[in-house]
């Protein structure tokens, strides 16, 4: 029996009647950037039916390998070549590192209380493990571990990487959820030819904003034809011929992982630090506008793909942290009113008075939002 989704978990369901309208994206628009086609055709479904399939999927146990590649125009780490070791955990550089080049991770899930992400670096491994209320972070680079105990209000959060700002690779399911939250009647939705991802036949859900006021051109989401789990997400910038960001399963098992995967004991000689638990619930991954709207210090202008999120002056020294990082300081260019960090899919404006505005929009939209918020 299929699960009925709640409005808060799947806000884009209210647009199902709108996306059932006639298709406006050509089925072959993304042919050059999609996974290999599926050999056995799936039963035909409308865009609305595929959206419902995604929204109602109940996959909560799996193990697999995810490959992520990104070419957003961000600076390399280091600028002179590929890093010999991962950046320090929690630094701005570590977040940038996950948004440049290629990365591989092993993912294990068993219900809402057990999850593990193993990020395989070139010469090291980083692990984030959740088992019940216990969350561990471990880096083999320097043999360090950190532990925190989740409060009761966080027990409904399954992804272990959303703790203490620790960067972590997210599954295609999580990425698809964020992107689909922006689908509204101004978004064109269609279903292309079936594809095959990790040996599983999938529907090819294509979404494209009908506005020129966003950097995003189109998104392709491979939806498992049997259970609705997103298997692959490809994001292409407006006017580009190939995806700027890809996250996809290369192997996948829907069997429950062995329970030992979710137990962790710090290795001998490791340094262990106890972390403070989060003060308040964390309802969404960074960049999700609905979560930002609930924060009293954050301004949100625009809707859907044109959303701009801004911080007030001096809020948590966000502007200072960005510009103090040498990589970002090098990449940020001077523009009227501040400095601009520009990528193919996201722009960030750091104003001269210490505010930060970000969105998948052209720079002038950020400058307008900053001027209006003064």
Radius of gyration: 21 Å
Structural class by SSE content: alpha+beta
Shape: globular
Regions with little confidence, pLDDT below 50 for 5+ residues: 1-38, 77-94, 161-167, 281-294
**Measured distance between first and last alpha carbons:** 52 Å
* Average pLDDT taken over every residue: 78
**Series of secondary-structure elements, N-terminal to C-terminal:** HHEHEEEEEHEEEEEEHEEHHEEEEH
Sheet with most strands: 12 strands, mixed
Count of individual helical segments: 8
Measured as a percent range, the helix fraction is 10-25%
Report on this structure.
The chain has a 12-stranded mixed β-sheet with strand order 7-8-9-10-11-1-2-3-4-5-6-12, covered by helices on one side. Strands 13-14-18-17-16-15 form a 6-stranded antiparallel β-sheet, sandwiched between helices. It is globular. It has helices spanning 16-19, 47-55, 92-97, 172-180, 289-293, 318-324, 326-331, 363-372; strands at residues 61-71, 100-110, 114-120, 125-131, 134-139, 144-149, 187-197, 200-209, 216-224, 230-237, 245-253, 271-274, 299-301, 308-311, 333-335, 338-342, 347-351, 356-359. It starts with 15 loop residues before the first helix and ends with a helix. It is 15% helix and 33% strand. The chain contains 8 helices and 18 strands. The protein is of the alpha+beta class and 374 residues long.
């Amino acid at each position: 029996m299929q699960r009925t989704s709640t409005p808060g978990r799947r806000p884009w369901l209210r647009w199902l009647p709108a996306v059932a309208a006639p298709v406006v994206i050509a089925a072959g628009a993304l042919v050059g950037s999609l996974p290999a086609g599926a050999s056995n055709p799936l039963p035909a479904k409308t865009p609305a039916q595929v959206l419902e399939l995604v929204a109602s999927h109940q996959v909560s146990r799996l193990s697999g390998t995810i490959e992520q590649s990104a070419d957003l125009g961000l600076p390399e780490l280091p600028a002179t070549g590929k890093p010999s070791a991962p950046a320090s955990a929690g630094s701005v550089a570590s977040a940038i590192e996950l948004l440049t080049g290629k990365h591989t991770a092993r993912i294990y899930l068993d219900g809402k209380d057990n999850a593990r992400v193993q990020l395989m670096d070139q010469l090291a491994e980083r692990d984030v493990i959740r088992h019940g209320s216990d969350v561990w972070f471990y880096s083999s680079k320097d043999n360090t571990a950190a532990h925190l105990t989740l409060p009761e209000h966080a027990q409904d959060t399954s992804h272990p990487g959303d703790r203490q700002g620790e960067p972590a690779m997210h599954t295609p399911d999580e990425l698809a959820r964020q992107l689909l939250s922006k689908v509204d009647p101004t978004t064109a939705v269609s279903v292309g030819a079936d594809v095959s991802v990790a040996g599983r036949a999938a529907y090819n859900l294509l979404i494209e904003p009908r506005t020129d006021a966003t950097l995003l051109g189109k998104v392709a989401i491979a939806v498992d034809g049997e259970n609705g789990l997103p298997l692959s997400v490809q994001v292409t910038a407006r006017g580009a011929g190939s995806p700027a960001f890809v996250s996809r399963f290369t192997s996948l098992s829907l069997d429950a992982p062995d329970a030992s995967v979710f137990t962790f004991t710090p290795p001998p000689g490791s340094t262990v630090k106890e972390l403070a638990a989060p003060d308040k619930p964390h309802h969404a991954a960074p960049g999700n506008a609905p979560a930002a709207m609930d924060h009293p210090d954050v301004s949100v202008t625009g809707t859907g793909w044109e959303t701009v999120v801004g911080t007030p002056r001096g809020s948590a020294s966000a502007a200072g942290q960005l510009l103090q990082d040498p990589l970002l300081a090098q990449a940020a260019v001077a523009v009227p009113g501040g400095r601009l960090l520009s990528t193919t899919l996201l722009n960030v404006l750091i104003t001269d008075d210490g505010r930060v505005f970000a969105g998948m929009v052209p720079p002038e939209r950020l400058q307008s939002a900053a001027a209006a918020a003064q």
